[in-house]
Specification:
Elements (H helix, E strand, L loop, with lengths): L2 E2 L4 H11 L3 H8 L3 H8 L5 E2 H11 L14 H4 L2 H9 L5 H21 L20 H12 L7 H9 L4 E4 L15 E6 L6 E4 L5 H18 L3 E4 L8 H14 L2 H4 L14 H4 L1 H7 L3 H10 L5 H13 L16 H6 L1 H20 L10 H8 L3 E3 L1 H10 L6 H13 L2 E4 H10 L1 H9 L3 E3 L3 H13 L13 H12 L3 E3 L17 H5 L8 E2 L1 H8 L5
Parallel strand pairs: 3-5, 7-8, 7-10, 8-9, 10-11
Antiparallel strand pairs: 1-2, 4-5, 4-6
Helix pairs in contact: 2-3, 8-11, 10-11, 15-16, 20-22, 22-23, 24-25
């Protein structure tokens, strides 16, 4: 198997140092012999593409990241917001650091997609003026700014914040790349940005506790205009900015007017009965008993000893084990994780792309003659994941057997091929299609060193620095384009054509990249591929 020789090994060392680990520890983590890693680091050997992918995935980087010839630009890799969080909590786990970077990446994609829509439909983050106000007045002002009703839940608080131009993400309850691990003390973090701040909240057993974390992070963004990462101790801090964020969250969720509805004479003597006592208010305001009790204590209406006793009881109570959440409703995951505002923006952008795509007469073939197209028919076509999935979803083999018999013949003859990368993508989404391709004897094209270098060249032309991809092509797309180019193939893709090129080339999608003079890869969508063949399926 071919080995990639053009690896910038100091970048591997940089990643090891950034992760706080040795080369031998890296070898153990990725399943490569330490002696093999040592030879690579000394320039005596290369890595296979799969080995390089393992290392890249472990560090949360792309494979092309390790082909860059320059030293790592830490300011490009780690944003100011990321460095702020890392400095606040130097003991952050590697997994949590990757999650922070993942959140930053999603925010960047969201902003790029938003730029494609009508500016009149965009909500711009414009916080209220809070300078000089005491915390109770700050909370009152923000409550009016958010337009909160008296009755609320985590979802309604989240929607109110999103409606003001912020993003609110929530982690998954089960193990995965969007989970803040159960063992992690971190309850949430916020990334300040004047255009679009984002809050990440850890999923907890009680949504009311998530609500306090949400408002605590909002307090940091509005009061301090800075990024923050917080654990359980921060949400009970008695000094500094953490105390201010806690006081803000408490007053916002439980105003002085709300507290008038609580009768002190009804308070039970046993702290274990406090939850039942406060049940009406907890349900109405969407908050935990602890938030209400803390506000009562601060207002001299509850002895501190009883508040402390309640917290001890709550911490020691027996909670039934849960399995970490069900994946039965995976279609709801995007909204659960990213929020309604984010999902709506993505869908609007996708719909906009589809309109632009269907309005184009022949954007894919304007620079090719009819003779050229017929020449292409006799040569290879490289399918990307989007085109194969489009074919499988819209023309099911059970309903279009003639079409798939024709496809199978082309696969068998080698006229239809796919990159290893594209096959892997299809396998993640439509595993039954992979079985069909295997039975049809698909000839996969392996990722070679030449293909990686061509993908790296195209990446540079798109002004993509380090791993800062936008809403356009990702690393896999670049590798698939390079595969088609170096194999003199036409690319079959169902990525929508952009009628108007974004000023930022990193937001260009596959068709626009293929049309670049310095790339020049012919492409067509699956339906166009069928029509052009003039094949008739009985």
């Amino acid at each position: 198997m071919e080995r990639i020789q053009s690896i910038n090994v100091p970048r591997i060392d940089w990643c090891c140092a950034d992760r706080g680990m040795t080369r031998d520890e890296l070898a153990h983590e990725v399943g490569i012999a330490p002696a093999s890693i040592a030879k690579v680091m000394e320039g005596e050997a290369g890595l296979t593409f799969n080995q390089l992918r393992k290392i890249a995935a472990f560090f949360g980087r792309g494979t092309l990241f390790f082909l860059e010839t320059e030293p790592v630009n830490e300011a490009k890799v780690h944003t100011l917001q990321f460095r702020t969080l890392a400095n606040q909590k130097p003991e952050l786990s590697p997994r949590l650091k990757l999650l922070i970077e993942r959140v930053e990446r999603q925010r960047a994609i969201y902003l790029a997609l938003r730029d494609e829509l009508d500016p009149a439909d965009m909500v711009v983050f414009s916080p209220p003026k809070l300078e000089g106000l005491r915390i109770p007045n700050v909370a009152r002002t923000v409550r009016l700014w958010l337009g909160l009703a008296d009755r609320n839940s985590f979802d309604s608080y989240r929607q109110a914040i999103e409606a003001r131009g912020l993003l609110v993400f929530r982690s998954n309850g089960y193990n995965g790349k969007w989970q803040i691990g159960k063992e992690s003390p971190i309850l949430g973090f916020s990334l300040y940005d004047s255009a679009c701040p984002v809050i990440m909240v850890k999923k907890q057993e009680s949504e009311t506790r998530q609500t306090f974390t949400l408002m605590h992070e909002l307090g940091h963004l509005l009061l301090h205009k800075t990024s923050s990462i917080d654990d359980e101790s921060d949400l009970h801090a008695q000094e500094g900015e953490e105390r201010e964020a806690n006081a803000f969250a408490g007053h916002l969720l439980v105003s002085d007017a709300f507290l008038l509805s609580i009768r002190d004479d009804d308070r039970p003597a046993d702290v274990a009965e406090f939850d039942d006592w406060l049940e009406p208010q907890r349900r109405e305001w969407g908050v935990s008993s602890e938030v209400i009790l803390r506000r009562l204590m601060d207002g001299k209406r509850l002895p501190q000893a009883q508040y402390v006793a309640y917290r001890q009881w709550w911490a020691n109570r027996i909670v039934p084990e849960k399995d970490g959440g069900s994946r039965q409703y995976r279609n709801r995951e995007p909204k659960h994780i990213f929020g309604d505002g984010y999902v709506r923006t993505v869908l609007d952008a996708l719909n906009s792309r589809r309109i632009l795509f269907t309005c184009q007469s022949q954007p894919r073939t304007d620079n090719l003659t009819i003779r050229d197209l017929h020449q292409l028919e006799r040569h290879y076509a490289v399918f990307d994941a989007s085109s194969m999935i489009e074919a499988w979803d819209n023309y099911p083999p059970g309903q279009f057997p003639g079409l798939w018999a024709w496809m199978a013949d082309r696969v068998e003859k080698g006229l239809i091929r796919m990159s290893d990368i594209a096959v892997e993508e299809v396998g993640h989404k439509v595993p039954e299609c992979i079985v069909w391709l295997r039975n049809a004897n698909l000839r996969k094209i392996s990722v070679s060193g030449a293909i990686l270098l061509e993908a790296f060249r195209i990446k540079g032309m798109l002004d993509i620095e380090e791993d800062k991809y936008g809403s356009g092509v990702d690393e896999n797309d670049l590798i698939i384009i390079a595969t088609a180019k170096l194999n003199d193939c036409e690319l079959i893709t169902n990525e929508a054509f952009q009628a108007y090129a974004s000023k930022q080339k990193r937001n260009w999608r596959i068709p626009l990249v293929c049309n670049m003079d310095t790339v020049n890869v012919p492409w067509i969508d699956f339906l166009g591929y069928l029509k052009r063949s003039k094949a008739v399926f009985g």
